[in-house]
Amino acid sequence: MNEENYLLKATRALASAKLLLDAGDCDGACNRAYYAMFDAAHAALLIANPSTNPATTKTHRGLIAAFGEHLVKTGMLAAELGRSLNQVERVRLLADYTGDEIEESDARQAVSQAEAFIAAVGQLYGQARSTSPKTELFQHDK
């Protein structure tokens, strides 16, 4: 999958997270918010380092570690985005596996963090696009 497809997938997951949150499904909203960020992180890694080994990003831990190493530590993206990815993953794990109730405020925060994360990756993509001769472009109006 290329960065454009990952960004489209991330955008769809974020839309789903918002719908679930509006419907009162905090667990589902947290799940979709995290996966929106997960897919956007894949896109960001492909933008930053197209030769990223897919085996390293096959697991959640591997993807998060690679995101920190290739995007946060290099200064391409803000450290706050790395922290947000970790925070939303923790909330998703609680929602998916513990049976603990997720507070609406926590779910809203997860969705908000996902939205900011995708926006930042979209900006990174736009910057890369403007300096790259690539013809495959991510179009926001598709």
From TrEMBL:
GO terms for molecular function: DNA binding. It comes from the Bacteria. Pfam families: HEPN. Keywords: DNA-binding. Residues 5-122 form the HEPN domain. InterPro entries: HEPN_dom, UPF0332_toxin. Belongs to the UPF0332 family. This is DNA-binding protein.
